[in-house]
Amino acid sequence: MIKFRNVLVVSIALAMVSSTASANLKPTEIPPVFEKLLNSPTLSNPAMIVIDGSTGQTIYEKNIYAQRKPASVMKLLTAAMVLQYLDPLKVFSTEVSITPETNTLFIKGSLDPWIGTTHSVARKMNRASLTHMASNATNAVRSYNAGELVEYTVIYSGLYEQDVKNFKTYWAKRGFNPVFKAEKADQVLTETTVPVVTETSPPVAKILDWMMLWSDNQLADRLARLSSQAAGEPFGILGVERIFKKLLAELQIDSSKLVVKDASGLSKSNKVTAKMIGELLYKLRKDPRFAGLYPVLPVSGVSGTLNERFIDTAPTAVGLVRAKTGSLNGTATLAGYVESSDREYVFVTLADQIPRGYTSLKKARAAIDKILGRIAAPNIPAEISPLPSGI
Q: Mind telling me which InterPro entries this protein's record contains (predicted)?
């Protein structure tokens, strides 16, 4: 029903905008109009840049060198990092086995970033199910111990700290409290074991799709760390920061004002500039190595974190904006691409000085939507009627 509603909204919006496509702002008309709109107290002196997607020319700029909080717009850097360093077809598997003679369970993971704790959800999305692994492990222990959950040791590798906590919580609720011991991957499964269960998550490409569409903070941080490791850097925020800066340097983008505290944008200490993100989006769109970014961005009024936006605030822009949203208490951001008749614009809006609270955030989002609505218009090819015969 939601999908049908969104398709209907897109159809209606495109029908509305087709009759007014010529009314959208021309490049030379954007600066004075945007300057007036952005002076609204609702946005509290934001930073914004608009770039012609074909030429790279800056059409409009405001506070573009100011360090601002990106919120989840930070995930654009993470996505670029993933596309650069991780194989999109790579899958993650987690193997559970048992050695009943020594009362030992083995969990050999591969740092799967998407292990699910709710079995039904994990199955629906083809994700690895921690519940299924934990349940099968306890059944195996019982089968070798006359139905009892006796004292065991769990030797593991390739698991995130949170996954270890989730295993412990699941088992503790069922009266099973094994001792956990972390080992390096090459030290796990060194003795004869009996396989219990193997769980696999979707490939990197699908995980990235979900992370960008729904702005999953945990996935962003985990994918960034995996990318950092693949690039030969430390598996942590230090490695992530190095790769972010390396990526920007390779694209000839100034990273001197970049501050990285996480890869998700959740920290208010992260800092970027509108110019930095605008140039990044422009260059990623031109570079075939990053072709996977554009398709995974939420679409205005249609998908992901933009599925409910623009419909009421700027209906003529429904289906014409692909962008990464961002929000923190006191911050509303949006960065991506907008179709505008015969051209595409790159845009970045960082409003990180708005009043705190959801009401202010909602008003800021609406203001951003309306601004983009002034330039959004579909590219409708002109229909040329055939010449009458004999002419």
A: Beta-lactam/transpept-like (IPR012338), Peptidase_S11_N (IPR001967), Peptidase_S13 (IPR000667)
